[in-house]
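Please check this one:

***
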Amino acid sequence: MKNEFRNGEKYHDPTAGEAIREADKPPEHVKMAIRRMKTVARWHGLEVEGRITLRDLLTGREWK
């Protein structure tokens, strides 16, 4: 997968590409919740095998 973004006219547009990548990153509280869920599973001798999907109750946005 290339780390470049091309606009509608097919020109290289790194500024827009970086903005899109940054907007798609999950916030820190989502990353922390997933890490904690995996840690609790390990404490109980379990392993998370599939994706963990979380939905923000305020915004409705889903994170996987």
